[in-house]
Amino acid sequence: MVPRVSAEGYRAAREGAALFDRPGRGRIVVSGADRATYLNGLLTNDIAALAAGAGCYAAYLTPQGRMITDLFVYNVGDVLLLSMDGSVTATVLGKLDQFIFSEDVQLGDVSSAFAQTSVVGPDAPRVVAAAVGALSETLSAMPLHACVRLPFHGESVVITRTADLGEPGFDLYMPSEQAVAADAALRSAGAVAIDHDTAEALRIEAGVPVFRKDMDEETIPLEAGIESRAISFSKGCYVGQEVIIRVLHRGHGRVARKLAGLVMAGGDPPPAGSMVVSSDDSAKDVGAVTSSTNSPALGQAIALAYLHRDYLAPGTALTIAGIDAVVTALPFVERQALKPA
User: Fold this and answer.
1) 257-264 and 323-328: which strand pairing?
2) pLDDT of residue 341
3) pLDDT of residue 243
4) Could you tell me the residue ranges of all domains in the chain?
């Protein structure tokens, strides 16, 4: 189906505040005295360095350096909260459990117990503050991946600073029974609900890959271009590190394929799986589309695609289903940057 981006919703995300429910996310809570050092040996980023109120983006890899998932890790004080694609939650929980030996670590799947909602856009700090009774200035000052726990309707809501939907904003984690009240409070404060196609347009314009679409169990982080955000190159060992270091040091970071942007000369956005073909006389397959949308900002169809490394240079002419396409540096649309934690 051709993506249909809501003009009202898109404008709210770029100029005001947009609300997007995230039922497809999975959530795991990790508790126990050894929780940080335990996860630090398994995930790619520096979990042990996270103070209370801090968070990070990371990946969980196989020993071969391929992705089990990407995820967000938040130190909310007494526990670490992990957020990931819901389809891999059970797999991640099982694999994490296998590595608990004598460590004081407990795991819990809280995906059904908690709801997760995103509010993005320049007015998101005011809207979230009004909904939960916080100070807008406090939320505005939160760096990327920071988190805070605040009271809400007699319960607690965890608010995290995010940018994975293409616009800076917040994710709110709350008991499932509070989701309706939170939605009403956010809408009353001025948030406009957006649908999946509109959220995807924001994400793809920002060039943010998502697991199960632009990354899967055959992907190494360097192919998806997430290493600068997801990997610490100064911490100790983690699962899959040897492969990553070998590619970076011996291979100088070169991989056979890499995620890139494509701008179409016309037509509808190509569906995922569409083959990308060289425009030279060889007309050979050089990659495949993973995500696509109609970009309101560019007024053209755009796509994310894995391309052979010989065809990654911006300006390279390619074709998809007979339609001309040009390789473009990511992101397609620049956005406000949040300062790192």
Assistant:
1) antiparallel
2) 66
3) 95
4) 7-205
Asked whether the beta carbons of 156 and 150 are under 8 A apart, the reply is: yes
Q: What is the dihedral of CA 72, 212, 43, 233, to 10 degrees?
A: -90
Distances (CA, A) of 305 to 56, 71, 175, 292: 26, 21, 37, 9
Residue range 185-209: average pLDDT? 97
Q: What distance in Å separates the CA atoms of residue 329 and residue 262, rounded to the nearest whole number?
A: 8
Q: Is the pTM of this model over 0.85?
A: yes
- The domain made up of 7-205 is a member of CATH 3.30.1360.120: yes
Contact call for residues 36 and 52 (beta carbons, < 8 A): no
* Torsion angle defined by CA atoms of residues 101, 108, 156 and 86, in that order, rounded to the nearest 10 degrees: 130
Spatial CA neighbour of 174 closest among 196, 154, 188, 194 = 154
For the chain, state the CA radius of gyration.
20
Strand spans (E) along the chain: 18-21, 25-31, 55-61, 67-75, 80-85, 106-109, 114-120, 147-152, 155-162, 169-175, 192-193, 257-264, 275-278, 285-295, 300-308, 317-320, 323-328
Q: What is the pLDDT of residues 216-265, one digit of tens each?
A: 999 999 999 999 999 999 998 999 999 999 998 887 778 999 999 999 99
Task: Please report, for the chain, how many H helices and E strands are present, in that order.
Answer: 10, 17
Element (H, E) at 186: helix 179-188
155-184 tens-digit pLDDT? 999 999 999 999 999 999 999 999 999 999
Mind giving me the DSSP string for 263-319?
Answer: EESSSSPPPTTPEEEESSTT--EEEEEEEEEEETTTTEEEEEEEEEGGG-STT-EEE
- What is the average pLDDT score of the chain? 95
Residue 1 pLDDT > 80:
no
